[in-house]
Specification:
Number of strands: 5
Radius of gyration: 16 Å
Helix content: 10-25%
Largest sheet: 5 strands, antiparallel
């Protein structure tokens, strides 16, 4: 069809540049392996830090590339049901950010 050239990957999630048409699963696995090699903090340590900052129930810690920094993203559900996305530095375990995952719950 005319006009569809180059539409692939133009609005994908951040960090996927250069994966044009490639198998996203393989690209994600490769990126995940690379991030794991850079992380100095275990997922368990990151989860503990997130729960110390935001008491609640934590989902699985996911390694992410955040603007070139290796971070863990951990969604914590608080007692009132609010979901907070906590970013933990994978190098030293410090809390970098806390954001309401659902924008509707933010003021």
């Amino acid at each position: 069809a005319e006009g569809t050239e180059g539409a692939e990957g133009t609005e994908g999630p951040e960090g996927t540049e250069g994966a044009e048409g490639a198998d996203d699963t393989a690209a994600e696995a490769a990126e995940s392996a690379a991030l794991e090699g850079l992380a100095k903090v275990t997922p368990e340590e990151a989860t503990a830090a997130a729960l110390k900052a935001v008491p609640g129930t934590a989902a699985a810690a996911e390694l992410e590339n955040e603007n070139g920094f290796v971070v863990y993203g951990i969604e914590v559900t608080t007692a009132d049901g609010t979901v907070i996305d906590v970013k933990i530095d994978a190098g030293d375990g410090s809390v970098l950010a806390q954001d309401a995952a659902d924008s509707e719950t933010a003021d």
